[in-house]
Write a structure and sequence with these properties.
- The protein is mainly α.
- The chain has two domains: 57 residues, no CATH class; 120 residues.
- It contains eight helices and no strands.
- Helix 3 packs antiparallel against helix 4 and helix 4 runs antiparallel to helix 5.
């Protein structure tokens, strides 16, 4: 069997820099074309937001020893911010906070539940990220109380899934969580 040759570190760095510089040039060209052709429509800002999102994903994915739960958390926050930005640039119809963010929260929680079940020996590593996702998922509840969100059902479902997921995680890892708390806090 013939295996592909592994790229050297210098070649990887060179390719990485070429792609980064190319993305920057494309972003500038998009802004220039947008200003020349349709200055009243901010489509270049949306495209550049997508390019920035891609690079956030690439940088975080390349980082060594990346915790999968941390990756889920970063992706959920980055995608939420991207959809809110796109909604804002398109006139802020609030579809991002009414539909997109609750769906993203639900997907992040389902992913965390699957990670917890599949890698039962590592769920203690995921507990902090799960807690952060629960806190993140309470933002729609706060927005509901401020009457900013019109579609309350989807946001309540997303927050409920998050709380149920945390409870399931704590039930599955109760002994380990107790051991870590005793060890960390010297109880």
């Amino acid at each position: 069997m013939i295996y592909p040759k592994k790229l050297s570190s210098k070649k990887k760095d060179l390719i990485f820099k070429i792609f980064l510089i190319s993305s920057f040039i494309v972003g500038l060209l998009l802004v220039l074309i947008n200003k020349i052709t349709t200055p009243t429509t901010p489509w270049a800002a949306l495209a550049n937001a997508g390019i920035i999102y891609i690079w956030i994903t690439v940088f975080y994915s390349i980082k060594k020893n990346t915790n999968i739960a941390g990756h889920v958390l970063i992706q959920a926050i980055a995608i939420s911010l991207l959809t809110i930005y796109i909604d804002y640039e398109l006139g802020f119809e609030k579809w991002s906070i009414n539909i997109s963010v609750p769906i993203i929260i639900m997907i992040a929680n389902i992913t965390m539940l699957i990670l917890t079940i599949v890698s039962y020996k590592k769920y203690i590593k995921y507990a902090v990220y799960q807690l952060i996702i629960v806190i993140f998922s309470m933002i729609p509840v706060i927005l509901i109380s401020e009457n900013i969100i019109q579609n309350k059902v989807l946001s309540i479902v997303a927050s409920s899934i998050s709380i149920i997921n945390l409870i399931i995680t704590l039930i599955l890892s109760a002994k380990d969580v107790k051991a870590v708390i005793i060890r960390k806090f010297h109880i």
